[in-house]
# Entry
Amino acid sequence: MDTVAPSYLPQTSSVAGAAAELAANRKIAKYSQLTTSYHFVPVAFETMGPINSSGMELSKELGRRTTIITGDAKGTSYLFQRLLVAIQRFNAVALRPAAGHRRRLTVPETHITFSGCL
# Structure
């Protein structure tokens, strides 16, 4: 989610994470039929780092469970570090100066789609 895209600036300039929450709400609407068979948790990351609230809760729970299984008290920290490094790597590609056009970058192995300048 491009935090500084003109379409999101009115929301993101006043509330951190607003674009991520909007993206999460769109995912809920798009995948509403899945909720009858699956526990669906939308996860949305903004290019500058904020995560939507349900994605944050899921990440915290995954980190907590990792800590219990591994016995390493830093499990949650490691998970967040990996997520934020993934965002930084994407930003290094997506936010570099472009020739004035936008393309979509899809990471198929994670089923994550990012939009940005390439």
The helical segments are 9-12, 18-30, 53-70, 75-94. Strands lie at 102-107, 112-117. The radius of gyration is 16 Å. Residues 9-117 form one domain.
